[in-house]
Amino acid sequence: GQQVMQIPQYQHVQEGEDFTTYCNSSTTLSNIQWYKQRPGGHPVFLIQLVKSGEVKKQKRLTFQFGEAKKNSSLHITATQTTDVGTYFCAGPRRGGSQGNLIFGKGTKLSVKP
Amino acid sequence: NAGVTQTPKFQVLKTGQSMTLQCAQDMNHNSMYWYRQDPGMGLRLIYYSASEGTTDKGEVPNGYNVSRLNKREFSLRLESAAPSQTSVYFCASRGQGREKLFFGSGTQLSVL
To answer: In this structure, which long-range contacts are made by residues A57-60, counting pairs with CB atoms below 8 Å and at least 24 apart in sequence?
Structure first.
């Protein structure tokens, strides 16, 4: 069945270091979304990528969508303690209605001050 | 603007008990969703409602029922709770023509 995989599962960094999480889909995606969940919180939408090879930036966060639209990455430059949380990617479920997403298992980021 | 509101925030049940998780959104969204989140498992879709009057099964619907009461409200019912249903439950909504989901703050459910 359709799968969305994320690596790594956990990442521990020193404040100021960079961080990257990777998302790989078993199928071509029409778009990919990224969400952030703070500890004890709920997922919050960060961004959606639609075009092949698309790159979008939000301050220190850089999001990429692969040329084949099967993979994506999120890179954080110079992490801060406010970046702590779990980052999820999600893509449309094949055969599902719009908004029916399949989520990766997430990458949990911890930042040591 | 409250967004997506879930009640209760915490609940402890005994095996076999029933309960209903409530969800309401005030953003006039057409679509609503129930997800469960388990450690290391990400978010898995239980049921969704693409529009008022319709509901469909998601990835893990067994043991659950849903009701789309009106455009604002979408409830999730556990008829006979089992320990395997111990999880954090999130309700979400999405506006028409939009892709992103808005999540509620979640319900932490423990079934003993």
So the answer is: none
pLDDT in tens, chain B (112 residues): 679 999 999 999 999 999 999 999 999 999 999 999 998 888 999 999 998 889 999 999 999 999 998 999 999 999 999 999 999 999 999 987 777 899 999 999 999 9
| Interface membership of A9 toward B (CB under 8 Å) | yes
- Asked if the peptide bond before residue A113 counts as cis, ω within 30 degrees of 0, the response is no
What's the number of CA atoms in the CB half-sphere (13 Å) around residue B25? Answer: 25
Residue in B48, B58, B104 closest to A42 by CB: B104
Tell me the three state secondary structure of residue B10. Answer: strand
